[in-house]
Amino acid sequence: MKTAVSKPGVGEEETTEPSEAKALKALPISETDLALLHSNWKDREDFGEFELTSMQWMFVDSHDGEAIPQLVGYYKELGFPENEEQWSTMAEIRRWIQETIVTGPLSDREFRAQRRSLVRNAAEMAEEKVPSVEVGARERVAAEANAEEVSSLVSREGSGYVFHEILQRAAMSGGQVWYQVSYGIAGSSKDPVLVWEPASAVPREATQTWSQSRHNFKYSNEELELMKLCAGSLKENQTSQVFTNAGIFVTIMNCGIILSIVNLVGAESLSQVYMHISSLYHDHGDVLPGDFGYDDGCHLRRFAELRQDLNARAKAFWLRVGQFIFVDRFHWKNHKNTHVYCTEHCNPDKNRRIDGANTEICEQSFRWFSRHKYSVNHMTPARFTFFFLIIADRWNQILLEKRK
Question: Which of 57, 133, 239, 357 could link 160 by a cystine bridge, Cβ 3.0 to 4.6 Å?
Fold first, then answer.
């Protein structure tokens, strides 16, 4: 999603669904977090002192269709009672409180404070001609903009912030809706700035595109019918009782080298698998093979095929990898006699490009991983993932040493 410079007030007010608000209010806050209320910290950048005033849960919706509860804290700057409260994740606020003196900008607070300051000076800026501002994340098209359009989005370098896309949506228990927006700085190669913005400050076209993308990640009637006809290795309804962790998704090369490990939430859903694989190929596709084997390959291939027109990245993934997804030979016996889609598109025996490839490498590797399953049953999701990252690194070292 690309648009011109974002302006405050161009979006629409949104409210949290009553069922979401009720579910959020029912989530408990630990005694450890409650003990941090009214704790203070200082910001070395502007010498301000801040106090944690309250906490609440929110649901964060990502592009893969998952709604994850996350605890956030509200804080205000001491000595300025008229200042509005700001919020950030409790994970970040815990770090600020622990360090007491924060050496860098306080995430979104610094950006929004800069925005408010510029809005106060908007009338003064409107009397002058504002230089041209680059708009568009890739095309870098230069466009003339008046002061009203860029007054609230001027960077420290004097250029404008360029709206890239919406990354996440947050539904608050109090009814407010916020979006995490990616901004670039016009004329700069710096990394994008990620900012949580109220729905009213996000371009209407962007929120519509976000809603459409969320809708496109829901299963179509055709996909649901395919799931009925070909159960295969479908894992949509498999859940884990260990916290919110459904396990890990491991990507392994034909030679046995482990490429990536990602934590799964709730169940091994197609949306999570698709988002991880598309990101992996987006970042490293130039060195990865084009064929991708998966035990539930038929459903994953159809999922990618139906969403190839979602955006340029989805189209690139489909052309580069999606159309070449197949079912590995070990699990093919669960698929081959169930549906014509599997036999036409995902049969490993019809794919000459993978002749001689060890498509069962994942099952073979997991036999080694399974030795540790009793050690991780009660680990938190973060510790669980970290443990297997260490195990995977050791596994790769063993393979490399054998080949010397």
Answer: 133
